[in-house]
Request: fold
Amino acid sequence: MLVYGKASRTGDPRDRLATLATLLRAVAEEPPGIRRHGARVAALIEAGELAQGIADATFHDHGRDLACPARDATTALLLDLARSVWDSWRTGFGTPPGTPDLSALAATRLPARITTRWAEGFAFYALYPESYAMAAAGAALAATTRVVGIRSIGVPLGAMVAAGLGSSDLRTVRPVGHPFRRALALDGAFAAALTAGDPAGFAIVDEGPGLSGSSFGAVMDTLAHLGIAEDRLTLFPSHTGTPGPQATERDQARWRRATRHTVPFGDVVLANGGLASWVADLVGPVQAPPIEISGGRWRAFQGRGADAWPPVNAQQEKRKFLLRAGGTLWHLKFAGLGPAGRAKLDRARALHAAGFTPPVAGYRHGFLVERWVADGRPLDLGPVAPGALIDWVGRYLGFRARHFPSGPERGARLSELVAMARHNVGEALGPDWAERLDAWVGPRMAGSRMALLADRARPVEIDGRMQPWEFLVRPDGGLLKCDALDHHAAHDLVGCQDIAWDIVGAAVELPLPEDAQGHLATIVERVGGYPVDPELLAVLTPCYLAFQLGAADMAGEGAHDPLEAGRHRRSCARYTQQLRHVLGG
Reply:
């Protein structure tokens, strides 16, 4: 099934350097404390993306990794920032702000364009760079250890390992090839320099391992080829598990033998009152430790038995906590580190001011803090009259259409959505149904019509999650939308789309009459200020269903709990039935 996607940005590196300068000014303007520390981490992440983009631009031009002045300058800057973050963390956020010098990098010849990749660990999976410095500091390795960061996210993580070791020796590499059989491509001089100088050992740094662990394996293979013994290698992954089922027996055995160092999430975010102390200025005196409700545990607070819980993909859920403080219950949800996480605070405030989402108190180092709506019931347990529901959802989606526009580069193209739908329909229902989809979509997309439809689309930061349990009904009958901030920027291929995607989602997911889609579109048009294309609605309907079918199928396959797997099977059956209906089966 096709579900996941990779987000990237292409642009002028000097624009990214200007963004970094702005972030560094924000560090200088903040008083001592967690906000200044968070600003430091935001600058580290931006510098890591810049360093990755410059190194990859050189790689793209030459087909292999090699040294260049711009690479060296960004690495030096990144190491300065990593040391600043580590000093701030271990001294309780009280160190002076400092101002790393950007002049050397600004004076260097930079590529005309770079492409940077969004680091999923920082954006979705609560991977804190401080944990890597903590792991390195506890690893008892020599300061002359050479750190090898695996691009993309291994660039800033490698810098943090170097900071924890007290090292200034950081190299980065880009594994290429089949996702499960990665390899390195190194210039001869770069390869020679990788092992020159007799370092005490090598620290290999990345998130993961994933299904195969082949990125770590590619670096280990190359170092072995260059004469480095396996016992001189130390791995810094993001979790304590082993590579997944796509790893070879050789790689699994090598991983089990390897020396590895990790520091778990709880030791970073929860130890010594961490998260609660970070948000204390927003929520008041803390009355009890945070309660984790990640992995679907929030469902226990919805007023229904486990047999009626909605399905969740626990592996993809962001970390969530409940915190009682200042006489109120607060919801602390991981929203992402860096500038993207802070932008969600602005979006949350705008949506709340318009009456669509719960009150929000602020953002602290990755976590958004909002009031927990204890008196709300999920929409499927507290039904609303169809007319009132259509009106509210229409106004909500119209508000998003008007206020949250996006560029087309932040989402899948229409042709990519159609290709995804064909693939998923074929996988789930068989080739005959894929041909039916072709026949259904074909007349609507013949000739230049797909290009015309794509041109007419107006991408926005969609909601992307229109299931009924994502809406709360208040005692007075009013509605609130939960989890409304970032599904347009999730770890999937959909991304930002025309608001028609959410209109289709509402028609599919919510308890509305079959003919409600047209009425809903009319309200969205009135509030949003521009028309909704009926042809686009038609084409996106099987695309939406095929995407949700693929997501439910993959979540069910990965579920360890039989009850959870059963919930996803029921979702698959529902989306399959609706697909058959749309395609004329």
The chain has a mean pLDDT of 93. Residues 34-62 form the longest helix (29 residues). The CA atoms of residues 449 and 455 lie 10 Å apart. The first strand starts at residue 8 and ends at 11.
